[in-house]
Design brief:
This protein is α+β, with helices and mostly antiparallel strands and 77 residues long. The protein has helices spanning 3-19, 53-63, and strands at residues 24-27, 33-35, 49-50. The chain has one domain.
Length: 77
Amino acid sequence: MSNNESLAARAQRAAQIAQKPELYKVCEGCESIVVRDAATCPNCHGYRFDTESERVRSQAEILGKRLPTSIPPSELH
């Protein structure tokens, strides 16, 4: 998948999240968006989340405009 295709897919997913922010939450460790039912973040294994709908919407907008980034495990501890 090219960068443009990846950005388009992320933007589409972000729009879906922004339409129903009550189904998601933002990880306070790595700022990923995860489903509301998640006990820990699948990316950084954090367990603190922001569940405010406006925060989810704004984070979805941010993430939908950039390519995915990874956090090296060494930076998580």
